[in-house]
Amino acid sequence: MTTIRQATPTDVSKLNLCNLDPLTENYARKFYFDYLVKWPTMFIVAENLKGQIIAYVMGKVEEDPDYVKLMGANKYLPWHGHVTCLTVAPQYRKMGLAKTLTAHLDRACEQDNAWFMDLFVRVSNKTAINMYKGMGYSVYRRVVEYYSDDPTGNGTSEDAFDMRKSLSRDKMKKYIRKDGENHRISPEDIYHP
User: What is the pTM of this model?
Assistant: First the structure.
């Protein structure tokens, strides 16, 4: 049996089973604690009967700073949810844990009245892209050379897809586009849609 619950400070030292995956971003401990303090309802873990963290999701709600509004409405990124990290330990994949954790995050962002959810995923991670598409996400744009590390060993950077999913507030689907794979931007333009 797996328990889905809000993360606690002691969980930060128990994420290794998930973080050993080369496609999972690893962060400094302070980063995890910042999420626990700022967005406690958006840091959710799955724990097995042995007390091991076998999956987790970290998210937040954010918007562009006010000065960006002055640059024009088409530059401003409104209040939205962001999936910072979603990972499942390899031996626990294909059990629906990623969908369950993401659904918790979606509900938290709906309660915070966010317009949409977004996330970044490596273009080579076809399994994750297909999973996200199955959860209602679509590619909004391609961020060229977003990832500077290289888990494949080729010594090159890798592009990311910025994927989005409208929430109930976005009734007109204003923050979604159908041909996102064809919209290329550089990393420094991420926060200007």
Answer: 0.85
Residue appearing with tokens 């971003």: 25
| Among 69, 66, 16, 5, residue whose Cα is nearest residue 40 | 5
Q: Are 191 and 75 in contact (CB under 8 A)?
A: no
Positions of E strands within the chain: 3-6, 43-47, 53-62, 80-88, 116-122, 138-147, 158-166, 184-185
For 99-126, the pLDDT digits (tens) are 999 999 999 999 999 999 999 999 999 9
Residue with the bigger pLDDT between 134 and 187: it is 134
List CB contacts of 159: < 8 A, sequence separation 6 or more.
Answer: 122, 123, 142, 143, 144, 145, 146, 147
How many other CB atoms sit within 10 Å of the CB of residue 143? Answer: 22
Q: Are 29 and 12 in contact (CB under 8 A)?
A: yes
Tokens 């030292």 label which residue?
13
pLDDT of residue 73: 54
